[in-house]
Amino acid sequence: MAQQTLSELYDLVRSRKENPIEGSYTDYLFNKGLDKILKKVGEENTEVIIGAKNTNDELIFETADYLYHLMVLLVAKDIPLSAIEAELGSRLDQQSRLHERPNIDNL
Ligand SMILES: N=c1c2ncn([C@@H]3O[C@H](COP(=O)(O)OP(=O)(O)OP(=O)(O)O)[C@@H](O)[C@H]3O)c2ncn1[C@@H]1O[C@H](COP(=O)(O)O)[C@@H](O)[C@H]1O
Question: 66 in ligand 1 pocket by Cβ < 6 Å?
């Protein structure tokens, strides 16, 4: 079965914005505009919560929908996925510093 990373999905969504394809749902969302994209992000977010209350399969399905719509939002706002990765990375750095033990040899 094919696998698609978030980065590959993001790139494909961005390519739809740059080279629209007739009949593409992503293209339809970009044409509808930011408010429509935000509405979908809100709806899909709620569906993740409902899915989590039901089955893991439903949670996986709804999470994929939600992440897809988040990628559309990031592309619509011209935010590269690397900006999110950098933000996550800075939190990782912060956490690592918090949990760093002082080296007693240097005391
Ligand atoms: N990952 C997705 C993806 N997840 C969900 N969806 C679409 O999101 C829609 C969500 O369904 P809903 O019932 O909530 O919405 P709807 O009633 O169809 O539409 P609205 O009127 O509410 O906008 C469905 O039409 C799904 O096909 C997606 N559409 C595209 N992708 C990926 O996006 C990339 C580009 O695909 P195209 O958009 O087909 O070019 C490819 O990698 C696709 O796999």
Answer: no
- 59 and 44 in contact (C-beta within 8 Å)? no
Nearest residue (CA) to ligand 1, atom 26 = 25
SS (H, E, C) the chain: CCCCCHHHHHHHHHHHHHCCCCCCHHHHHHHHCHHHHHHHHHHHHHHHHHHHHCCHHHHHHHHHHHHHHHHHHHHHCCCCHHHHHHHHHHHHHHHHHHHCCCCHHHC
Query: What pTM did the predictor assign?
Result: 0.92
Q: What are the tens digits of pLDDT across the range 61-97?
A: 999 999 999 999 999 999 999 999 999 999 998 888 8
Superfamily of domain 6-100: MazG-like (1.10.287.1080)
Is the CB of 30 within 6 Å of ligand 1? no
The ipTM of this complex is 0.94
- For residue 79, which amino acid is it? I
